[in-house]
Structure prediction request, 225 residues.
Amino acid sequence: MRVMQTRSADFSILITLISLTFCLSTVGASAESHSDNKAFNAAVEAVKARDYSRALILFEQQANDAEHDAQYNMAVLSQAGKGRPRNYPDALYWGWLAQLGGIEEAEKIASEMLDILTEDDVEAVRVRVLENLQSRLENGEINAISQFADYHLNVLEEPDHGTAYIWYSIAVALNIPDMIEPRDNTESDIEAKELARLQTEAKELFKKYNFTPFNSKEVGDANAS
Prediction:
């Protein structure tokens, strides 16, 4: 599969992608995130003005704060070579993080980069993504838990069902929405002799990290089955 080209004639394609992600960023936005949406909008306006360097600065600030729509646009701009020289490892890095954050459009970018980069380059990006997620876990970011589990199923070359099961189990215990089905599906891929060990490890990590449970009052009972 050939990488998507973004030349001057294709400027409308880039704007379409940015505009689509802006729509995604405003769905369900709360008062607390309103200022972040303003920052995102400023980055979009910079793209429309073809001030790609400024757009990258603005998007990157938000992307480093785990704003997944901004991560997706970092992937788009890194792939297109707008504002900075084209960089496929960066496009894959931001694309994977956005994909783990629920931006479905990022999967296409990641897939295209996997077709271009060498295995050594891809593995180096996997390490970068893992380090990003581990850092967020160490900082107590509850939203990183499901993404860390998804990483072990969808980003590693060989899925690690055991580690994914541990973190999905922790996610369910913390009342994070929509985690019961992934936990149970992953459990079906694990040998019975491994379950007790993995559940013990999940219990120990649960105590170690001591995350504040997800507040389900705003979204309904995440553990309702």
